[in-house]
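Homework help board

Subject: predicted structure for assignment chain

Our instructor gave us this sequence and asked us to write out the predicted structure in token form, then describe one feature. I got the tokens but I'm not sure how to describe them. Can anyone check?
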Amino acid sequence: MKRLALALLGAAAFAAPLAAQAQGIVRGGDPKSAIASVVTVPAGYDTIYVSGMTPPVVDAAATGVAKFGDTKTQTIGVIKRLEDALKSQGATLSDVVMMRVLLVGDPAKDGKMDFAGMMEGYKTFFGTAEQPNKPSRITSQVSALVADGMLVEIEVQAARPPKK
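My token output:
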């Protein structure tokens, strides 16, 4: 009887992580919100860390913000770069569970961050019919990024079931 109990206990311990993995990533919070207020990743998932990405140049002849575009343009460019980085690891934007957004104050907005512009760009990739998954996120204003005219830098963490 003792052996049976130990065998059942061992089987339950083995099955619990598999059950959590089968359940998948759980995203919580207000469904109308643009972000998940909480994300739970089951044990055993692969975690992918993507360094902060900055925007691509949209006009090499320009200087300042015009070289990279407005906040919305920069956000779209940065998320496309993140998408490419994730793809190189066999992941997609739907696997993103945490996002950190750094915004520089926009000179056209009296030095205040253009949160609305960032959200316009963000919402083209997250919480859509094609890609409904939303990450947890923090958005902060910083004084500067690595190049004059850059207004947006974003880093993400993604999680996916392990490759078999």
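Reply (TA_rk): Your tokens look well-formed. For the description, you could write something like this. Residues 4-21 have pLDDT under 50 and may be disordered. That's the kind of observation they're looking for.
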